[in-house]
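Re: the request from the purification team.
They wanted to know what the chain is likely to look like in 3D before they choose a buffer screen. I agreed to run a prediction and write the result into the notebook, where they can find it.
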Amino acid sequence: MSNFYEERATMIAAGDLQEFVPFGRDHCKHHPNALNLQLRQLQPASELWSSDGAAGLVGSLQEVTLHEKQKESWQLRRGGSEIGEVDYDEELYVAGNMVIWSKGSKSQALAVYKAFTVDSPVQQALWCDFIISQDKSEKAYSSAEVEKCICILQSSCINMHSIEGKDYIASLPFQVANVWPTKYGLLFERSSSSHEIPPGPPREPLPTMFSMLHPLDEITPLVCKSGSLFGSSRVQYVVDHAMKIVFLSTDPSIVMTYDTVQCLHSVWVLRRVKAEEENAVLKFSEQGGTPQNVAPSSSLTANLRSLSKGDSPVASPFQNYSSIHSQSRSTSSPSLHSRSPSISNMAALSRAHSPASGVHSFTGVQRFNLSSHNQSPRRHSISHSPDSNSNSSFLAPETEPIVPELCIDHLWTEAITNIREKNSQASKVFITSDLCGQKFLCFLVESQLQLRCVKFQESNDKTQLIFGSITNIQAKDAAPVEKIDTMLVLESSGNLVLYTGVVRVGKVFIPGLPAPSLTMSNAMPRPSTPLDSVSTPTPLSKLLGTLDEVVLLSPVPELRDSSKLHDSLYNEDCTFQQLGTYIHSIRDPVRNRVTLELSNGSMVRITLPEIATSELVQTCLQAIKFILPKEIAVQMLVKWYSVHSAPGGPSYHSEWNLFVICLMNMMGYNTDRLAWTRNFDFEGSLSPVIAPKKARPSETGSDEDWEYLLNSDYHQKVESHLLNRSLCLSPLEVSQIKDEDLSQNLSLDSSTLLFSHIPAMFFVLHLVYEELKLNTLMGEGIHSLVDLLVQLARDLKLEPYLDHYYRDYPTLVRTTGQVCTIDQGQTGFMHHPSFFTSEPPSIYQWVSSCLKGEEMPPYPYLPGICERSRLVVLSIALYILGDESSVCDESSHYLSRISLAPQKSQAEQEENRFSFRHSPSVSSLAERLVVWMANVGFTLRDLETLPFGIALPIRDAIYHCREQPAADWPEAVCLLIGRQDLSKQACEGNLPKGKSVLSSDVPSGTETEEEDDGMNDMNQEVMSLIWSEDLRVQDVRRLLQSAHPVRVNVVQYPELSDHEFIEEKENRLLQLCQRTMALPVGRGMFTLFSYHPVPTEPLPIPKLNLTGRAPPRNTTVDLNSGNIDVPPNMTSWASFHNGVAAGLKIAPASQIDSAWIVYNKPKHAELANEYAGFLMALGLNGHLTKLATLNIHDYLTKGHEMTSIGLLLGVSAAKLGTMDMSITRLLSIHIPALLPPTSTELDVPHNVQVAAVVGIGLVYQGTAHRHTAEVLLAEIGRPPGPEMEYCTDRESYSLAAGLALGMVCLGHGSNLIGMSDLNVPEQLYQYMVGGHRRFQAGMHREKHKSPSYQIKEGDTINVDVTCPGATLALAMIYLKTNNRSIADWLRAPDTMYLLDFVKPEFLLLRTLARCLILWDDILPNSKWVDSNVPQIIRENSISLSEIELPCSEDLNLETLSQAHVYIIAGACLSLGFRFAGSENLSAFNCLHKFAKDFMTYLSAPNASVTGPYNLETCLSVVLLSLAMVMAGSGNLKVLQLCRFLHMKTGGEMNYGFHLAHHMALGILFLGGGRYSLSTSNSSIAALLCALYPHFPAHSTDNRYHLQALRHLYVLAAEPRLLVPVDVDTNTPCYALLEVTYKIKVKGPRYWELLIDLSKGTQHLKSILSKDGVLYVKLRAGQLSYKDDPMGWQSLLAQTVANRNSEARAFKPETISAFTSDPALLSFAEYFCKPTVNMGQKQELLDLFSSVLYECVTQETPEMLPAYIAMDQAVRRLGRREMSETSELWQIKLVLEFFSSRSHQERLQTHPKRGLFMNSEFLPVVKCSIDNTLDQWLQAGGDVCLHAYLSGQPWEESQLSMLACFLVYHSVPAPRHLPSVGLEGSTSFAELLFKCKQLKMPVRALLRLAPLLLGNPQPMVM
């Protein structure tokens, strides 16, 4: 029996066993699809009979469900989660037509993630990642973004669903046998059939493998490159039917195939095709391009005849394969393609989903013309097709073969065996790596019951894989366990065995599964492994439920006595004969979980234990593995794993003890005889079940038990306990004697595995120890590690190391201890590696020397293990030594990398990991350090776990950078330096544009109480900060709301009858409604871009309320009562504007898609106008580009005039200046002039034509496109046609053509390329002043042969129609060019005769045009305005104030005064354009004066001469100019003017003037103050359209100017508001900004921030476009300007106020006002609040308070823990309780840092900077440490010190103080002293001289001098 137990001990216990059922199976049952079937089945049979012909239904249904059950399959993969290391499985389950993707594990609930149902049965489903980037080169694959998809293969097509929600379908041109996901995309294997090779002459076979790199790409054949015997390689398509893919891996990208004829497996590398291979396959002839030359090419010729497939119902997949080379892309000859009807043309789709690109491409499918319709073979399809005969050379350049994209390149083929093993195809292939990272490709040949493993590795230059030899393992099944680098093998006997690579680890014992029974059979020898495991079995009874009694005879015997170790030579393979169930196969390995299929059909999932669970053991194992040769490392790990994972393995906390024993046994120690390992208490708190098993057989107890207790850790703890001291119990000396006995004969066994590697292992463990010292969380681990290191150091006789450990942990390291002798003869076998140093490397010492400026040897480092040491060394080198190169290159002169042999790959990996990407702006060392650390991935959490002394230089650098960081640093850097304001800014920049910070969340409840007026979503917070003194915003809101009824105040005179009174009221209401209808345009300006819509709700459009209320009884007045005549369609444009205003609220950054736009479509027809406006608004803010072409077409075909206008203008605005072809086509349909002359006459409404013409202008803006310009030029003077067409509202069309022409040639001036023959300026001049009509050139001659029968214009130009358009076109073409000659054409005429020829209002346009051309001459003063008026007018006209009329008979006074006011208005308007959005004060004053003048003139008696209408027009123009200058500023004076004009409703005030006044109001508050106007050319063009100075007379008037164009001002709006947002509270606030050529947030209250515009304005633009949010961070101790405008409440101000002694002890309650850091608040709460009877603690409390004050005011809250740690350390030293010296080291490093040279230099360069640590605190710390140590010296420490220096033993009680003294004063180790000969010195000077080379500080020397000079009195200073 004992044999059985021995075997059990090397077993590996698998953890938590669960029954496994694929989750999808369960889900399928409840899924609607399957449910229907079952319901049908449950129906009573009679019902089924009744329907005729359904007799067989019941049977067939049952068949279906049975059939489904068999065809289920599933696969599992590791679920990746970004958040933390959560490990779960993802399952893809396929059954019938369904695919179910679920996620979850035992720790996370299982849940269905997605379920897909397709039309035909699923053949295969898989995960695949497609690469989106257009760049197809290899290197793009590492960085490119990836589209993660699920692919579902059906018989005729493949569906792909991406995680983002895109769906693709690709039809398959052939039947697919298999699909494989690759690194590049999908790989298809075509299924071959026996009929495929036709009789007759041999032909080139068809490819069998194809690839598809993206769902929208073509399916292309695979190329294969195979080496031949003679070294030349052959390149061809993969055509061999015998080659089947058995495995495909993405990383490395390899394919494994099996040749069914030769019965061999081969491995190929899968990669992109190279150009030369492409050419070799295509054999594309260089010289000729005609199809005839292509056709005969040998490879895959174009003459492939159709392959008839006899009995198969589907025609051959490659019916017309010729197309692979000769498929023409020309769309005009349809006869070329035999398209199958099922193929949808995906031409419109390209990767970018833009309708414009990819117009000419066909689907891949068409080139493999799968066509079941034409069975006749078609040879030479090109030369025999009817169309192409005529001109076949024309087609040649377009013929394009299919270009292959992937290639497989041969790597390895298995050796040919003597016997041909038929069907030896691998049934399962996987890649596994062993514990040392060597990779194996394993394939299972089931027919042979063999698992064949091939070792492979990358070549040194990383270009190829090198394969080694095959190892065979007998196996029935196998699966990799990737997490622990092993694999599970199921042997034919039914045992599960774990292997790592090809090394056997041990059997796997599965608790709960019946173990193999005890008949020993086929015992098989195996390499011996010493059995040294210590195991505590779990109670087997629980695990083995129903097993035979035999197994439970007794627990596994104790193997504690490892001296009796012997090798078990036989490994008994037990078989399963008697038991029913056994393991049948292994499947679905994920990480360390696998599923076992049992013979009874059930499945269980098991988890294999990890290699180590505690961080400490993991790190040590890694280090040892790194240093040992691979074979030994594997053996060591195998042994450790089998000990660690034995059934009933260790509990977590004893893992380390187990590791130590296992390791020391392997080194040759006898751990049972070694005192400290013998006492390892394995149970600690193990379950009580096991406790009795430990009990000794004797009931009475024995002396050994007492010994055991005395030696236990528990006893030692009690000994040192305070209670023990107070009771004066004397320590027991018993155990010492026992130790002495033991130590006589302890020696190491040199035959063990690791004996020769002890020094190397000791050294790497020492480095791990140094690494752990840099992590404050690993304190416990260090204690454990020191024990092991000390033991090894003693035995290796390494005094320096012992001294080093003693100084670190004086209480742990006793001076005496058990030594295990190493036989002198054996030391020769020990391998002392080259990197072993006799001086112990110490990271603290290294940093300290750097700070003192001494030379240091490079610090040794283990790549990948000691990363902290590396970081610390490099950052100190950079920051303290100032060596910039330290972080750039591999920095060999600070670090020495440790390695066994040169491992190149390792080095290169390192280099790639830490390549230092130069950040944009790094000036100082501090910035350099911070940016580098962030790049390497160092975070604040890492910084917090560094000891404070080591972290100090890094914190200092961070403190430096925090003051003035660069604005373009990446987010990680900003987080590291604690500037959340910046990191949030950086992060917002990269976020998908979502909801803005500033969009106010108005709870939806409020809208029910108050009617929605369309202005609820304005951001009140920001506006109340901009205009904080008054309520002007509410006033604007009141003026612009159109959702409430108006007040109709009419007095009923006695003589009025009631009926007349009602009519009177309604007439008054009609007057007021003119104003109400004009409001929405202004409201749109006010609410511009202020709202982010919710994608699930339609946009609320406030209703336009045209009713009134009459006081006093508030009766409703309605226009629809029929008492008065209301104009028809009065409200149609008003509601259009209302829709635009609502749509313009949507910010451009919102997330909107096509579906949402369509979703907003109203149900009622009367709301169609609003929806039309909404569409136009979406175009203006850029969202209309998302609307699908299909929907645009849908809207236009409805023929609704308004919708067409809105849509055409919107789409054009969205595509401003892009010359987009598809939009051009869309617009041309609506413009007769752009259609070919023979096209049918389309009846396009006039206004839609106007919109389309302006649209053309927008799309071609600034492009100077010749054809467009030519047509538009002609259209300005388009004559009326004979059939009454073009006869109404001709002015607006001509104006639109002029505006469009101006936009197309915007600002091009005289250099219009290639248009000189069009004579644009001359033609425009003629349109402006009149003259003979030119002969109409171009296509439309026929149309205009006969003149109109209605309008008799003769052959002269009708100037009244063409003048405005031509004038503005000239203005825009010559905009800002300062072209005098053109400007002179536009000068106002200066004789009465000429003045009579010009309409006065055209003078306004001419003046405006002239000033816009002479842009630089415009001056903001009234003198300049008057200078535009010709002399004759100036002398004779009534100036705006004079009363008496000058009399002159030949002057027409009316003409003169009208000309005068219009010219002045034109000059004012140009002033508005010139200074738009600038808030220029002199321009404002000048325009304000003219506005006042016009208002007084309106009420003057002689106003009638000029005419009130003209004056009102001019006043409106001046008001608009005023608003343009003050755009977005909300200026109060302008607001007063607007408010005054709002109240005027009678008389001349018509709809147009109201429109102008409220537009002025809207511009004044543009976008709620966030936006202003730009003066770029494009903006001026848009504003000219929007502010055209002829206003509509009534709400349906579009005669002179299309009303929809009023909204184009949006194109001129630009964000100008920077909103500082406090990053902690997320609310807007005030901050001081300084704008020079850079923008700077200035102190003192906020952290400084700089946006440098000299480096480009991109950053600022992106901030402004995202609502202008600029995050700022309050400094500690400050309040915001809103809460504390004068700054009298800040923390500093309070302390200055009361200058008494307690000023520093500020009240901790006040801190909450000054910092939002929760840690500081709770510190104040718990540590600084005084309680009753404090007494002793008061002093501590004061200290804490002042430290807290210091940290808050100096902005260094992160230093609080350091201050407290230092204080605690000093107190502990004072109480002589220092058990370890690391804190003293830290204080020493802090002091050294502040006195270091680099720090002093920094202080000199920035004298103003606050000190990083309080200057008063450090000297106090230093002084108290000095005092404590000096007192100790005087109290007898000197004796102890002398003993230490002379190498004699000293007393134990002084251990810790001595170590503190040695560390603090850097006293060298005693071994260094004799070399200098200090003892013989006679004077202090000599001593000083000798110590120079020991680098010992003078302070220390002064204290040592008395001892060394033989003078008993120490010199204490």
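For the purification team: The two ends are 77 Å apart (CA to CA).
Please add any questions underneath this entry.
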